[in-house]
Amino acid sequence: MAETLRMGVAVIGNVASVSLYAAPITTFKRVIKKKSTEEFSCIPYIIGLLNCLLFTWYGLPVVSYKWENFPLVTVNGVGILLELSYVLIYFFYASAKGKGRVAMITIPVLIVFCITALVSTFALHDNPHRKLLVGSIGLVVSVTMYGSPLVVMKKVIKTKSVEFMPLPLSVASFFAASLWLTYGILIRDIFVGGPNVIGLPLGILQLVLHCKYRKKSVVEGPNKGDMEKGNLEKVEMEKVNLEMEDVEKIVTIIHKNGSS
Question: Any transmembrane segments, and where (predicted)?
Fold first, then answer.
C-alpha cells in the first residue's frame, strides 16, 4: 500500500513537474515572435537546467542505490531538454550584452555540474556518500531555483503587473512543490523533499500576487479604454461642431448676397 502511494505521488509529481518545465513555452513563443527577450530574466532557466542535471545524476544508479529514485531521472531528463532549449533560445534573441550575461552564468553552472559528477564518481566509493554530496549541492541549487522568482515578484509588486510572471508557471510551481514535498516525506529523503519546504510557500505567494494584480489590471483596463474612447468621441464632436459652424456661415453669406 505504501509503495503504491509513493508511486502514485511520484507519477502525479512527474506530470506536475513536466508542466512546470513546459510552462515557459508560451513565454518563448512570445520571445521568438517579437525577436526580443524583453524584460524576461535568463537566471531561472539556467538555474533550472543545473537543478535538472544534478537530480538526474542523483537518481541514476551511480549515486542512488540501483533505481530507487527512478522517478527523478524521468522528470529531470525531460527538464534538461526543455531548460536547455529555453537557454539557447534566450541566448539567440538576447542583445550583445544579454548574450554575455547568459554565457557568464551558464559556463560556471556547467562546470559545477561536471566537477560534482566527477568527484562523486571517482573520489567517493559508496552510494550514501555520493548521495550526500550530490544531494547537498542539489538542495542548495533547488532552493536557489525556487528563490529566483523573488526577483520577478519584486518587479510585480513594483509595477503592479503580472505580465512577466506567467500564471501557468506559477500554478505548475505550486503543484510540483506540493507533490515533491509529499514524495520526499514518503521516501524519507531530505534532498528530495527539503527544497520544496521553501518552494511551496513561494508558489503560494506567486498565486496570491496573481490574484491581487491580475484582477486589478482587468478592472482598470476597460476604464482606460473607456476614457480613450470618450476622448476620441469628444474630439470627433468638436470637429463636427466646427464643420457645422462653417456651413452656417457659408449659408448666411449666400443668403445675404441673394437678398442684395
Answer: 6-28, 40-60, 72-93, 105-125, 131-152, 164-184, 190-209
Per-residue pLDDT of the chain (260 residues; tens, 9 = 90+): 667 887 888 888 888 888 888 888 888 998 999 999 887 778 889 988 999 999 999 999 999 988 888 889 999 999 999 999 999 999 999 998 889 999 999 999 999 999 999 999 999 989 999 999 999 999 888 888 777 677 778 778 888 887 777 777 788 888 888 888 888 888 888 888 888 888 888 888 888 888 888 765 444 444 444 444 455 555 455 554 555 555 455 445 444 545 44
Instruction: Say if CB 136 and CB 112 are below 8 A apart.
Output: no
Residue 172 CA to residue 203 CA, distance in Å, equals: 9
Indicate whether this model's pTM tops 0.90.
Answer: no
